[in-house]
Every structure is written in structure tokens, then in C-alpha cells.
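The data are quoted verbatim here:
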Amino acid sequence: MEYTEGVRFDSLGLSAEIMRAIQRRGIEVSTPVQAGCIPPMMDWQDVIAKAPTGTGKTFAYGIPILEHIDPQNDSVQAVILAPTRELAIQITDELRDVGMYRAGVRTVCLYGGQPIGRQIEALKKRPQIVVATPGRLSDHMKRRTVRVDNAQTVVLDEADRMLDMGFVHDVTRLLDRMSKRRNLGLFSATISREVMDIAWVYQRDAAEVTVREDEQNKPDIKQFRMDVAQGEKADAITRILEATGFDRCMAFCNTKGSTERITKFLQMRGVDAECIHGDIPQKRREQVMDRFRQGKLRVFVSTDVAARGIDVDDVDIVFNCDVPDENQDYVHRIGRTGRAKRQGVAVTLIADYPSKMRIDDIAQKTRNIIIPVRFDEDGNLSVVE
């Protein structure tokens, strides 16, 4: 079923503790995905939800989970799987926020790159909710530091991305171990063949919730493309920043090497830029992300995977230093700007013919208008006629 409008939270039969946390944030009306998912999940029904990034999926499954938790029961009652550590951390923070008045409910976050001993200590406090990346949860299960076989609710967040990243065998093994679950939620921006396979095998009579990217939740993003020489991308970014004065920017690259190069070249031009990718230690990655969230870093450079879970509402501009290989990655990238009813800007830098062919294909398949621009003789940005 397709949902286009939210409902008042006070019409959903939520507990006083959850309502108090929601009201504390000044929210009265749910998003469409929350309106579609909260009632069936509260009734222990399986859910498969297709909704764009940034539409409030964490509350859509997090609120029913928190309502179902028995604080007197020390076993793991809910498991939420996420593709990256950044998203797992973000989910944990949101659950703790909306569950702050539910006494006795404990949540733990398990992900790679953090000392496992610290996580083992956290697990000794007997959390009822486990948020985890599939690989690290599998590690803990092998060590017998966590038992999830009594979990009643299991959620796969960003299921398409998780399965695309090669976690399909980890995920199915984990689902097989959690055979006592009462409901399974699949939340995804796209319903890929792999997501459908999981649904067919592990779900029964699932409520199907679809939230289309309509004018209400579709971000207002001006999209541009610019032809540049391969070695002039950092120059182009610097000139655009000087011309616009934007001071909260994300730049995406396809590879770790490209991420390092663009960051170094921007720094050489006096731009406050830092990067993250899979080879950078987790502690350093978190420091960079915190700087950006706090508005203390001008340009945040990243690969697609490393940037998952970075949820910042007021990014001024997104640069595609490389044209992404997947159309959906383009949509995810530019969707970091134009949030919270603000107009955003996205600029894709084109350095070769294959990139030109890819951006043409992306524009056609995603139905986006991407306007060609260049620097004129006076150094100003102008539309290419």
C-alpha cells in the first residue's frame, strides 16, 4: 500500500513514555513511512517498506520495538542489522533518544573497528536491543558473548545496501539462528531482487508499505554538471566555493585513492577538507564525522560506503568528484543536500567520455534535470547553451 501522508502520533495508541519523548522533540505528526509501518509492527506483523532515504525509517521500526520490550526480561528481544558502523551508531542514538523515558530498556551497538572487549563489557549489562553490522554480530555469536536466538523482532535497515555489500550469507545465517522471531522488518530505498529473495523465504503475509518520492518529501536540489580536466577537479571545487561562499559541503569519490587525492589537493589550496574511507581507523573517522556534524569542517570527502549513516540536515552543496557506477548511489549522494525544506545544490565533475555517458544515463533513468555549466571569461559560473 502506498502512503503519502502522516498521522498524528497521539492517534497510534503509543505509551505515555514514548509520547513524552516524541513531544519533547516537538513532533506531532508522523512521516508517511511511520504511518504505514508502526501499526502493523505493533501488531507483530512482518513489514517490507520501500521509502526514500531521510523519511524517518528508524522511528518507523524503532517505536514498535521499544513498545514491545519487556524491561524485566534480560534476554535480547530485538536485533537491528545495518550495513555500516556509521548507520548502526546513528540508529542507536535515535533509539536511545525516543526510548529515554522507558526505564530498564538497554541498547547496545556492535560494529567492527572498535575494540571487541569494550563491546563484550557492554553486553554483560544484558541489553534487550542489539544494533549491529552483520559481520561483528557474527563474531560475537561465535565467541558466545551474545545470544540472539530468542529475539522477537528482527529488522534489516538499508536492506538493499546491506545485501549489495555482500552480507547476504551473514544475514541469512543470522535469520536462521533467530527462528523464534515474531516479526521481520525489511526497510529499503529500493526493493532489489536480493531483498525480494529474503522476503519470500523469511516473511509471511508481510504488510507492504511504499512511500513514493513525491513533491512533499522530494528534496529541492539544483543539479549541475561541469566538464573539467582530470587534474582540475580540486580547482573547480575551490572556485565554486569561492563564488558561492558555501561552507558545509560533501564531496564523493568512487575510490579510496581518489578520496585521498581530492582531499590533499583541496588542502593545498587552503580549503578546510578532510576525508574518510574504509582504510582510515574508526576513531579517526568518528572524529572527522563529529567535526562535520558540528559545523567545524567545510568539506567532507568520502566514498559512498564510508558515508552511509552520516545524517546532516543542512549540507549546502554536494560534489560528485567521480560519477557513481550505480544510479541509486547518485540519488543517495545528492540527497544529502536540499533537506529540511531548504534548496540544495549538486555539482558533478565530468573528466572523460565514459563519465559523460554515465551522467547522461543517470539523468535519463532517474528523471533528473542536470544542467551543464562552465566558468565564463570573468570566472563566473554560467549555463552552457
Notes: The mean pLDDT is 89. The domain at 9-210 is CATH 3.40.50.300 (Rossmann fold).
